Amino acid sequence: MKKILLASAALLAAPLAHATYFEAPLCDDPKIENPDSTGFTFTDVILIPTTPVKDQNKSGTCWAFSGLSTLEDNVLKNSGKEIDLSEMWVVRNAYIDKAKKYMRMNGKINFAQGGSFADVLEMTRLYGAVPEEAYSGLNYGEAKHSHYEMAEALQAYLDAILARGMKNGKLSSAWLPGFIGILDAYLGKAPENFTYNGKNYTPKSFAKEMGIVPEDFEIYTSYTHHPFYEEFVLEIPDNWIWSSCRNVPMEELQAVCDNALENGYSVMWAADVSEGGFKWRKGYAVLPDDKDQKDMTDTELARWVKLDDKDRDNAKYDIKGPVKEKKVTQESRQTTFDNYETTDDHGMVIVGTATDQEGNKYYKVKNSWDTNQIYDGFFYVSVPYFLEKTLNIGVHKNAVPKDIAKKFK
Q1: Where do runs of H (alpha helix) occur along 188-321?
Q2: pTM confidence score
Q3: How far is C-alpha 151 from the chain's CA centre?
Q4: Which helix (H) or strand (E) holds 43?
Q5: Where are the alpha helices (DSSP H) in 57-147?
Q6: Looking at residue 169, what DSSP letter applies?
């Protein structure tokens, strides 16, 4: 998934209302002390305990951050232990497996920084997990992740090896060690074992002891170009691993998400964040309805019609608070996907629900773009935005409503 570069917002005091934490008592006086200047006032309804917000910085590794956060949250739910897993351990292993497939496919497959929740699950299943302190992946003189140079070097290396291999009719036996050498130089050599809290582990023994079971997670989506209640490979470039999603109607996709949150599970969320209503610095994402002009006066409607496309977009997304949002249908969801209006941009984690000052429901989302933002790295997504702009979600299998799970063979 591509990392969208946004200018950092000034750090503002988060104007949150009372937060009802999962399985925590209600506050006797849930008043809002500091309504914010964005026009929205959010009150948390459900808030799942989650590990701290991280910063992927200049790397297209949101899928690793969001996927591992979902696994970390599950450990926290089951054991009360807060662990910090190494994203770069997963990234390293994914690059190696991705390179092997790229060479087998003669370069006719996506090789990029992006990935998916399925990558996290598969890499963890195959290679285990490592704590951040044992493998930070910062072996190249930077304090934060910055992968552009490494990614360009890996791509150029593979293409050169592939071109020479095609001419020679075979690949050199040195190509994979050479590729791993680049990863070693930037991310550091892979630890075969390490010490954590005074005990020695291998990556697989660490995952087992922490209770990380990738097989316990499932991925759901909702598109009509494949039958419902079957699995299919979602056709997006970053799905290099060719993982399958469980396909359900749109309303059931939301039901899976809601049921997970109601039972204390966070939800991995892959979505389009390139929309005009996605206001990261202001802490919300909405899907304004520009077709419903019934409340406009004749003068306002005339002005709207005369605006050019750019000015109309600027006016449409000049949001001062809760707005009339688009009515999303299964058909409109499919159309925006087919027409590239809903694109595979970013991986995040849904950690709760909230309402605005008008009672509209939102999902509270944890991002991986650091904490220098109005809600310290969290933001609120409206239900219409979720319904139309979700590519897929990843959940623990116990979080899926039984009536939905039993519809699959």
Answers
A1: 203-210, 250-262, 298-306, 309-316
A2: 0.88
A3: 20
A4: strand 43-47
A5: 62-79, 87-104, 117-127
A6: T
Does the 43-287+325-405 domain belong in CATH 3.90.70.10? yes
Question: Which tens digits make up the pLDDT trace of 125-140?
Answer: 999 999 999 999 999 9
Tokens coding 45: 């309804």
What does the block give as tokens for 181?
A: 């050498």
* Integer angstrom CA distances of residue 160 from 94, 115, 153: 20, 23, 11
Q: Residue 150: in which H helix or E strand, if any?
A: helix 148-168
Taking CB atoms within 8 Å and a gap of at least 24, the contacts of 306-315 are 313/276
Tokens of 195: 């010490």
One-letter identity of residue 128: G
14 is written with which tokens?
Answer: 């988060």
Q: Tell me which residue of 57, 78, 53 sits closest to 66, measured CA to CA.
A: 53
Q: Quick one: how far is CA 267 from the chain centroid?
A: 9
Residue ranges of the chain with pLDDT lower than 50? Answer: 1-35, 293-294, 296
Query: Phi and psi of 131, rounded to 5°?
Result: -70, 155
The first and second tokens of residue 265, run together, are: 């599970």
CA distance 148 to 58: 7
Gyration radius from the chain CA atoms = 22
What is the rounded distance in angstroms from the CA atom of residue 144 to the CA atom of residue 65? 14
Residue length of the chain: 409
User: What digits encode the pLDDT tens for the residues 38-72?
Assistant: 899 999 999 999 999 999 999 999 999 999 999 99
Cα gap 349→365, rounded to integer Å: 6
Q: Which residues pair with 254 in a beta bridge?
A: none
- Please name every residue paired with 44 in a beta bridge, in sequence order, or none if there are none: 354
Structure tokens, 231: 């699995």
- The residue written with tokens 């997670």 in the block is 217
Task: Report the candidate in 228, 218, 234, 240 with the shortest Cα–Cα distance to residue 342.
Answer: 234
334 Rama class: left (phi>0) / alpha (psi -120 to 50) / beta: alpha
Among residues 54, 119, 86, the alpha carbon closest in space to that of 203 is found at: 86
Where do the domains of the chain lie?
Answer: 43-287+325-405
